[in-house]
Design goal:
48% of the residues lie in helices and 14% in strands. It is an alpha+beta fold and 494 residues long. The protein has a 9-stranded antiparallel beta sheet with strand order 1-3-2-15-14-13-12-11-10, sandwiched between helices. A 3-stranded mixed beta sheet has the order 6-5-16, with no helix packed on it. It has a two-stranded antiparallel ribbon with strand order 4-7. α14 packs parallel to α17.
């Protein structure tokens, strides 16, 4: 009888314990031992930054060695007001490049790829405009962004992802290199798109399937996807774009061909496993996803960027820190690791004019965790830049409207010489010089499609207003010439 009562008590305790464990809010998962890590200060800092920068949602994970020290979600994952949790997947942006580099190094480990072999050994039909240069580009050149393919062309391709990887690479036959192969660093998304196709050609497996099978699965990244269609339960966070300073939820374009360089998907919880594997030289819970030799080789500084920063293979390296951030049209991520700690921040919005503040959040948290530096939110208004741009656009629209009004307004008297000079100077500056500079920037320096995708609203407005100003300028020149001809004819008649 006593044994029976004891058994009932044990069952009761187990039921209570099970209930307690399953009722823990999934939004926060903390390690048992934080080693004096003051979580409350991190919470306060992130919450302050989300409010200050009007960020809808974010998630963060901190690991040390092979342990997760902290992982938590903040805010909402979309307009349905669902909480952002450690399990909420977010599109990674260029952090995806580190996964593509890892996949390449796995194939190097297996002897299926040699880093210094030309791309044409794996894609025999690979061609750019310069056929000789096409033969020179190696796998290492692509990994280190020294292929000669320009940053401009890499930005342009973001809006051309509605095709297969093979179709994208085939379309590069007319692409001209900006610099000689191997000459210098030029960050270009196209390098990693080509690497994605190399993986497909060598393994005879779709890139998305390879990543899922050989990286996500062994690392137990259960909320990570190489294809958004795999998310059967619609858990992927909705991204927000910043339009005239307001956060607006938007859908992404089809980015099938852009996945290897910018559109893999993962969660904070899964990224903890990824960082643990990196910190432990390819080892994760008995799984070996890459040899120590290849992992170290991946992170060796190679291409000089600026100051003390180099590009390695899918990572930026500065001293003993490796990092990479990622932008899409409506998400932001950053991963930072040293020899001891790893930090990942995922945000379901993007703000081009404040992306440096997103970067700074990770840097500040790292300095707090590593060096116990105080966490302080900035005091400046992050949206002052939007206030300025919005005012400029309002003034520009007013100027365009007034200019159109003047075109149709009948001139009752001839302008004086000084007035004429002022009009001509104004015409040159405001109807040609400034708008042509803007158009040059958004067409020649950065592709128009990239400007309108990453700076929507303001990018569209500046382009359209510039076109209107030039058209008005041409009409005004025509009117000036016509009036001058009429004036000369009148004086001849007299």
């Amino acid at each position: 009888m006593k044994n029976l009562k004891l058994l009932k008590i044990v069952k009761f305790v187990l039921i209570i314990l099970l209930f307690f464990l399953t009722s823990i809010n999934e939004k926060t998962v903390e390690a048992e031992n934080h080693n004096d890590l003051d979580i409350s200060k991190i919470d306060e800092y992130i919450n302050n930054e989300l409010e200050r920068q009007n960020i809808p949602g974010a998630s963060i994970t901190i690991v040390k060695g092979d342990k997760v020290q902290y992982v938590k979600g903040y805010g909402i994952s979309g307009p349905n007001e669902k909480e952002m949790t450690p399990q909420t997947p977010v599109v990674l942006g260029s952090v995806s490049k580190s996964f593509t580099a890892l996949a390449i190094m796995q194939l190097v480990d297996q002897g299926m790829i040699q880093l210094d072999n030309p791309v044409q050994q794996y894609i025999p039909w690979f061609r750019l405009a310069d056929e000789e240069a096409s033969k020179e580009i190696t796998i290492r050149h692509l990994l280190n962004h020294t292929s000669g393919i320009s940053e401009y062309d890499g930005q342009r391709v973001i809006s051309e992802g509605d095709q297969s990887l093979k179709e994208l690479v085939e379309s590069l036959k007319g692409l001209r290199l900006e610099k000689r192969v191997g000459e210098s660093y030029q960050y270009s998304n196209l390098n990693y798109a080509i690497l994605g196709l190399v993986i497909e050609e060598v393994t005879k497996t779709p890139y998305t399937e390879y990543i899922s099978r050989n990286i996500f699965k062994p690392l137990q990244m259960e909320n990570s996807y190489a294809d958004p269609k795999e998310d059967k339960n619609n858990t992927i966070a909705t991204g927000y774009q910043t339009i005239f300073g307001f956060k607006i939820p938007t859908e992404q374009l089809n980015h099938e061909a852009n996945v290897p360089h910018g559109y893999l998907i993962s969660s904070a919880e899964d990224m903890a496993n990824y960082m643990i594997a990196i910190l432990n030289k390819g080892q994760f819970k008995g799984e070996n996803i890459l040899s120590k030799q290849r992992m170290d080789e991946m992170h060796q500084p190679s291409s000089f960027i600026e100051n003390h920063t180099y590009y390695a293979m899918g990572w930026e390296v500065e001293n003993d820190v490796i990092t990479h951030n990622g932008w899409t049209e409506n998400t932001y991520t950053r991963v930072l690791l040293d020899e001891e700690y790893g930090i990942t921040l995922l945000i379901n919005s993007f703000d081009y004019f404040n992306s440096n503040r997103y970067d700074q959040m990770v840097t500040n948290i790292y300095n707090f965790v590593k060096h116990n530096k105080p966490l302080k939110s900035g005091e400046e208004n992050p949206f002052m830049i939007y206030i300025i741009f919005d005012l400029i656009i309002v003034v520009a629209i007013t100027f365009v409207t007034f200019s159109v009004y003047r075109i149709f307004k009948q001139q009752k008297r001839r302008a004086k010489p000084l007035r004429m000079i002022i009009n001509v100077v104004s015409l040159i500056v405001f109807n040609f010089l400034l708008p042509l500079l803007i158009l040059y920037y958004v067409i020649k320096v950065v592709p128009l499609s990239t400007v309108t995708l990453f700076v929507p609203g303001i990018g569209h407005a500046l382009f359209i207003i510039s076109l209107f100003l030039i058209i008005i300028g041409v009409i005004n020149i025509g009117n000036l010439v016509r009036n001058r001809v009429k004036a000369d004819e009148s004086s001849k008649e007299k």
